[in-house]
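Input (structure):
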């Protein structure tokens, strides 16, 4: 069960420039910080694509939350 406050914190941690969306580059950096150095930017793009509901190639909090709460 995902908690929206936790999700918000996690989202803000990944969104390093604070513009309210997560790009592939930000996602890759976040995974690398968690120790997953195998994720390249193109892998991060694919992961984002599977969660990107409106096709703008970045993750909004709503999309992030929808993914977590599934
Ligand atoms: Ca961002
Ligand atoms: Ca999107």
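Output (sequence):
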């Amino acid at each position: 069960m995902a908690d929206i406050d936790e999700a918000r914190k996690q989202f803000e941690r990944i969104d390093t420039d604070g513009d309210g969306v997560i790009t592939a580059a930000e996602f890759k950096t976040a995974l690398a910080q968690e120790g997953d150095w195998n994720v390249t930017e193109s892998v991060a793009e694919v992961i984002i694509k599977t969660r990107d509901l409106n096709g703008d190639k970045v993750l909004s909090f709503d999309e992030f939350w929808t993914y977590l709460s599934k």
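Notes: Residues 15, 17, 19, 21-23, 26 surround calcium ion (ligand 1) (CB under 6 Å). The CA atoms of residues 52 and 59 lie 6 Å apart.
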